[in-house]
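Standup notes
- DV: blocked on the single-chain target, sequence here:
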Amino acid sequence: MDFSKVVNERHSSRKFLNKTIAETTLKEIVREAQRTPSWANAQPWEPIIATGETLQTIKKNHMRLSNQGIPGDSDMETAHRTEWADYARNNIGQWNNALVRHLQNNNLPTYEYGETQTSLFQAAAIVYLTVKAPLNDWEIFDMGAFGQTLMLSAANRGIQSIPAYEVVRYPDELRRIFNLGNDQKFLMGVALGYEDESVINDFRTTRDDEKNILRMER
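- DV (later): unblocked, structure below
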């Protein structure tokens, strides 16, 4: 697929079909993501992909903890809207308002949107982006680049994605399931799958014009 088409067709899907992704395809996606540049070629990423029975266990436990109202305790500190700069805070507000309008215009109750999160978007696979402690700021940049390359590789194969805090909301539970030590940190999770035709997936976010963000010096 043409690169510009891949970039523009990739979007955050919130509901996936009950259709598995071939293991060979998942490995190819990770292999391409490994071409991501990193600080001095550190390649700090240690992705873990959950599918099958393991993923079903994760989903079941996640829904149980969510329904019990157990607060999240992600390895990376979350940031409230007020902790962002004005420009970013304005974009967050516009996104939130646009999402609410989309739900209202399509008669989708907010609880249905919430259910897509507690069900972990019914993903066919989840890629956990993990690193070993100690964690430094440059690794966060490297992992972000790795995650984007991974999602674009998936989109090139007709597989959609959504990176979401919800996926790594309970890292201690994930460490228990994967039998990992506390030094393994879950920075982000990317849900993958073939997109459902639900109208909830018709929601699209806007992007600001480059003239409003770009400064060029000649």
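- Follow-up: The chain has a mean pLDDT of 95.
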